[in-house]
Amino acid sequence: MKLSVPIFSLQLYCNPCLHWLAVPAMILLVAAAAPPSILNRETLRRAVRQLRELYCLEFVLCANREEHDFRAAFEHLERQGLLTSTGPGSSSDSDRRVSIVAGKEETAAIYLSVLGPFLCTYLQVTNVLLDTFRNQRKPFTEKDYLAEVQQYVEQLLLRQDRNVHPYCLSLDSISLALHSLVALGGITKSKRDEGGYASRISVISVSGWPMWK
């Protein structure tokens, strides 16, 4: 069941190649966002692992293939001339600096577009959780959460704000974002006395997810 659900979800993608581009896109996302002075291969690996954990319900990512997927994606990006790793030939991963090759930013952006809709969705989900439900300081149902996020996204789209995408209206992705945050400990889920479930924001802030820790 753990594998059958994401594999079935894969069939819903408009582009079935999306799965194969996910990990290379995650690597480029970290390389583009991290300060070059602190990004080495080991830091990159840890950050990509965190992204895999966050998006494990969106993409078909098997935990026991994490190291293989990372190595294969990294080597693919090096062969494509998008990523460079500098340091002594025999140096450890913590000594090898990683960066996107100068002049290749536009090509890297094509890979990053794979993650764009998901990044926007999870960003807006987090905004709603922090701005609306955390302030209520009481449990909320998933039904209320789905309606609130969709309404919030609709207003952003009408205003043509940044960091929003039509995919952010997808109930599937909005729901998966909530369940992912529950799995990571950012949200706690408890059964209510009258039946059904409610989720409440835990003391572990979803905004405090330590990408560079």
Number of self-contained structural domains:
2
Category by helix and strand content: mainly alpha
The CATH architecture category of the largest domain equals Orthogonal Bundle
As a whole number of angstroms, the C-alpha radius of gyration is 19 Å
CATH superfamily of the largest domain: Winged helix-like DNA-binding domain superfamily/Winged helix DNA-binding domain
Instruction: Give the termini distance in whole angstroms.
Output: 32 Å
| Spatial sequence of strands, sheet with the most strands | 1-2
Instruction: Give the low-pLDDT segments.
Output: 203-213
In the CATH scheme, the class of the largest domain would be: Mainly Alpha
Structure summary, number of beta strands: 4
Reported by name, the CATH topology of the largest domain is: Arc Repressor Mutant, subunit A
- The helix/strand order is HHHHEEHHHHEE
Shape by Cα distribution: elongated
Strand content: 5-15%
| Average pLDDT reading | 81
Helix tally?
Answer: 8
Helicity level: 40-55%
State the major sheet: 2 strands, antiparallel
Transmembrane segments: 20-39
InterPro entries: GPAT/DHAPAT (IPR022284), GPAT/DHAPAT_C (IPR045520)
Protein name: GPAT/DHAPAT C-terminal domain-containing protein
GO molecular function: glycerol-3-phosphate O-acyltransferase activity; glycerone-phosphate O-acyltransferase activity
